[in-house]
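Slide 14.
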Amino acid sequence: MNPQTTLAIVGVGNTDYRRMHHLGLDALAVEAGRRAIADSGLAAPQIDGIILAGTMPPADEIAFACGMKNRAYTCHNAYTPGAGPVAALVEAQLAIRAGLASAVLVVYGVKTSKPGGPYAFHAADPLKADLEMPVGYYGQPLYFGCLAQRYRHEYGLADEQLGALAVAQRAWAARTPGSQKAEPITLDDYLAAPYVAEPLRNLDCCLISDGAGAYVVTTLERARDLPRTPAVVRGVAAGSNPWTLTEMFTQSPRFLDIGPGKVGERAMQQAGVSHGDVDVVQIYDCFTLSIILQLESLGFCAPGEGAALVGDGRTGPGGSLPVNTDGGHLCHAYIPGMTHVLEGVRQLRGERGDAQVADVKVSLVSTFAGPDHATLVLTHDNG
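Slide 15: predicted structure.
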């Protein structure tokens, strides 16, 4: 196969998202996988590769339950979850171009309602347990609260600017069936919300979610014969900052640098698009501040200008830079990184009903987790 063969996402699927799900992670992964396969128009035996985009139940069990009978390629993406669902496309691309598979199912799910929830992730780090947790320097809201305080010191950051993001994302979630938090809020609601780690309030923080998502990727040539509008993978890149997950949020020498930086630049260069070409942006939003930092790192504005960029409501419905058009991890569901990919595809297809942005031709997805980050540029098929 030509090493420059273009790929496309041809099927997407997900479970419902809940604060606490009665199904196990294995059953959730299978349900999402089956829905993505059905959406693609391919029969399950036609899909011969599977990539797990994070810590998951065994791939053979998921593939078997999804009906895959000719599994020729199996991979476990090693990027930290959040970045993994986008970074998995790099591996799918390599596998298909090398002739190791012709169509690949990418699956990722979480049950963050389990005991300890997302806090348990960093608690397993012995350096944090020994040196940071005993003095109270622990927990994701506190990490990002410190980042926000530093940003405020360096550049200025008004409560109303963070609030504008929270209000915009809730507005998108209100237009998205199945969102965990869909009731609209006002800026006054935001300002009245309790602090979790000042200046971050509870409305700045992502959800606790159980659920799974999946997508199917194959060649664009094959995609053109399938029933759904293909989301063409024009650019995709993944990489890491030069420090560890242990250091990332507490000891990083570049405290406000969470990526994607050069990775985002590479993906956009591959795609041949500029910032003005991008119609919708799906950005990993563990907290409102992470959107601001990534918009700056992606080059949509200069460092220190992100708060002003989001502060006037332009990221919400009807705005000039629609961001997280399903409500994101703050309001729709926290299946790290995966829901952003699915929303990017659905916006290109024009399937989003009340949340559909008009005439979407370019959809950008940016995700990260710790030092790892990945960027994806999806476009229409231009023939």
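Speaker note: The chain has one domain: 7-114+207-379.
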